[in-house]
Amino acid sequence: MIKLFRQLKPFSLPIAAILLLVFLQSMGDLYLPTLMSDIVDKGIVQQDRALIWRIGGFMLLVAGGGALCSIVASFLSAKVSMGFGRNTRSRMFNHVENFTLTEFDKLGTASLITRTTNDITQVQTVLTMMLRMMIGAPMMMIGGIIMAVSEDAKLSLIFVVVIPVLVLAIAYVGMKGLPLFKAIQIKLDKLNLVLREHLVGIRVIRSFNRTDHENKRFSAANRDLTDTAIKVNKIMALLMPMMMFVMNFSMIGILYFGGIRIGNGDLQVGSLMAFIQYAMQIMFSLIMVSMMFVLIPRASASAIRINEVLDMVPEITDPEVAVASLDQPEITDPEVAVASLDQPAKPELHGFVEFKNVSFSYPGAEQPALSNISFSARPGEVTAIIGGTGSGKSTLLSLIPRFYDVVEGEVLVNGTDIRRMTQEELRAKIGYVPQKAVLFTGTVSDNIRYGKEGATDEEIRHAAEIAQALDFVTAMKDGFNSEIAQGGNNVSGGQKQRLSIARALLRKPEIYLFDDSFSALDFKTDAKLRAALKGETTESTVLIVAQRVSTVMDADRIIVLDEGQIAGIGSHRELLAGCDVYREIVSSQLSEEEIA
Fold this sequence. Notes:
Domain ABC transmembrane type-1: 16-298
Helix content: 55-70%
Transmembrane segments: 52-76, 130-149, 155-175, 235-258, 278-296
Distance between the termini: 71 Å
Protein name: ABC transporter ATP-binding protein
GO molecular function: ABC-type oligopeptide transporter activity; ATP binding; ATP hydrolysis activity
CATH superfamily of the largest domain: ABC transporter type 1, transmembrane domain
Shape: elongated
Organism: Paenibacillus rhizophilus
Number of helices: 22
Strand content: 5-15%
CATH architecture of the largest domain: Up-down Bundle
Largest sheet: 6 strands, mixed
CATH class of the largest domain: Mainly Alpha
């Protein structure tokens, strides 16, 4: 937690003001019992009303000043803690934005949400109390002991017995509670995971009549969290009765021995009353500290989890010295090199993609997902990737925007290894349509404009028209201003895909990546969309991952993957003649007449 609190440097001035105000409040609170002792011993006993009014008025001023200091300190404490929470959330969010998919897989989405919200709130709450209690309580305790000793040193020996007992009780409860608070945060992650899966997958759950099963899963996670919370609260509940028990017995001891000393003439009544108030201040200071120990273990567990995220270094980082990609690439593929001799150089061509002996494995996987992949994709051409389930099609495509880094080999864009380019520069060249279409809350226009900030309405309309989305968008109640629900739940799967494609088209990138992005479209819409795309992508490189043969058969180049390796590269006719894997895929989808 100390490491996290180093981020409080921007709030140094308010924190200094809080320390000063808490100090003044504590001094005022410590001075009041002495003034009350003077009223009793000098005013009431000697029947000096003027003295009583004078000291009483001064007490009111001291109390009012202390109250004002307390109010301002509370306001500043809240402002500092809220600002710290805001900054920490922003810092964590920005850091997580740089994570690769590997880091997301390690931590999990549910855990990241819990850490960004609940964990930071726990630390924020403790910080508010620490700025007041952890500073004020020691001041009150030390000052109370000094003032109590000044009133009667012998009577103060009671604290020699009482304070160690209270400190041991607080330490015991803190040691027992810390492991349980860590467990609570982990179990809260689990509860959030189950809840998130239930809400996201509600359609599947209901369609398979698994509501009861999911209720049991949630109840089990909820019960586990509840049992742990009850256990830790039972331990914490012991603290307050123990504190009150010790405090009350201390009062009995003070009154008993104080009465004896008054009887012997060694102590005055006013001094005993002041001593009792100082004893109460000392005890309540320890109670305040004990309350902190109830919260600190949980906040400490939360701080560890927050630091775990902030200390995690993304596997994929930008190079210290980035290399700009070339407009006219150095072509190493023989087939492409020969073809390029037949046409004049076109400096304006860009978006050349090349894989050179690329291999990739997911962390912890026994076998590589891709092995020795080499091919080129040129501007103005459509390169299609097809293969069976689990053959590595989507994995291959995800290497181009550098969602993962290759284990061996190189991925080149415009002749430059993408690891030598900044991620921003690389991804600015790419229009990516994921396998699972993702829409955000907002209007249809907002979702399409996500591909190009500042795009005009005409550009948005044109992109929607090419993506075959114009008809259904204009049919919606408010057209392009129609609201998209969370997750795009108020549009169909095919409509989601078309809006995602429109988003990529609006960007006019050098490279288009379609990861099985036509799977939810009917054959007619699929064909119309691919025909419209040809006119839009004449100067861009297009890579399409697809399951349907009809989607890829007109591509300039088809890459057939089988168990992470290239089984064949060529046109539809060439692969039918020379690639068994492709022939099997085609025969499973098309009739003999269609193949012919």
